[in-house]
Amino acid sequence: MKVKKSRTNLSTTGQQRQRRSWAEPYKIKMVEPLRMTSPQQRRRAIQAAGYNTFLLRSEDVYIDLLTDSGTSAMSDWQWAGMMLGDEAYAGSRNFYNLEEAVQEHYGYRYVIPTHQGRGAEHILSQILIKPGDTIPGNMYFTTTRFHQEHAGGNFVDIIIDEAHDSRSLHPFKGNIDLKKLERQLKASRVPYVCVAATVNMAGGQPISMRNMKAVSQLCKKHKTKIFLDATRAVENAYFIKTREKGYGERSLKSILREFCSYSDGCTMSGKKDSLVNIGGWLAMNDSSIAEEARNLIVVYEGLHTYGGLAGRDMEAMARGIVESVDENHMRARIGQVEYLGQLLLDWKIPIVEPIGGHAIYLDARRFYPHMPQDNFPAQTLAAELYLDSGVRSMERGIVSAGRDKESGANHHPSLELVRLTIPRRVYTQAHMDVVAESVESVFRKPRKPRGLAMTYEPKYLRFFQARFRPK
Ligand code: F0G
Known about the structure:
By secondary structure, the chain is of the alpha/beta class. The protein has 16 helices and 14 strands.
């Protein structure tokens, strides 16, 4: 199953060359045709989209690696669950199934569904953050930081320095720097520490169990809570299993439970690990926070037993949680990401290392070393990749980082990346080959673009809807 250096994964035993490939632990029951486009069509489409891949029509995309969020393929068992939706306004049977699945797999006492992850982030931030509070976190995530700041808080990055270096091979680049954390806990008012499992913006990098335990001890000492962003916590559990001493024989399920036990609750986007197209939840162990959350949820999301979801959505998510900790599933999921990453590394394409959980991150600075960051190298690279092959990716650099809340100046993140995000159970290894070949062709292109200028900047989370023109 593990992808070796060679593409064909050949191993030699004695005289015989034995081929031992790995394959996806499922077969395909239904297909969705892909549309191929011509270079002219793609040129027109990206112009019309203002050089922002978020504004392309999905119909104009060949292989869609924009995000792994809500784009996964559900299993026949999940689809069967969709037919068992109990669409009662209150007390749907599917809510209780979801509640039970969360309690069993994540271990939290109280569970409140939300329409997706940011719904949970909104409610949690409104309950716990007072103006002037500081929320330390292991690198920002766009919507999470937005809700923290919207509630009057200040986000402070406390991730280890290695996370900001695309070449560092640290196996747990998602770890929290305990000194940075302690400084914040001593100097500021911290309602909770926000810990992300597999840090998206750092390249899908995990946090170790040891670090999580240490963070928990420090927070206990300072009487501060920890809320986890559990969006990709099962993927994090896989990295603990494969990289951390003492966890190799443990099940993903038990690693996940232990990991969550060091926190007081979590926000969750079910659209990732839990293999659904829509859904999320908020969970905690403290009954008074749960009560406040139930009060707010009726205002913003819906009754506390549906939180903006249909009964069928909750059922699919409950079943997705069970499937997400399946060892074969997770090995194939991370294995596919690793396959694509290894191919690019073999071809000397600059990507963030080690290879992360849900995506390959191209280092746009090393694609276009002469381009100033204010010309949006990653945004440019995402457009170039689309023009080359119809592969859709996403900018994760200066555009995503946005502006400072106080001064209005652009943040200049050290990482200027393009994310090739792999949906779960959707594409085959052959698709990964096509993607790698297109990335290589863009990397080797002798004529380099000059970059882009922003022509429209939305007020919030600008990367979603900003428009650009070539320089
Ligand atoms: N936290 C993390 C780490 C995420 O990656 C996301 C979403 C959210 C929270 C918010 O969840 O979308 O359900 O509201 N990430 C998507 C992405 C959008 O493409 O990485 P949501």
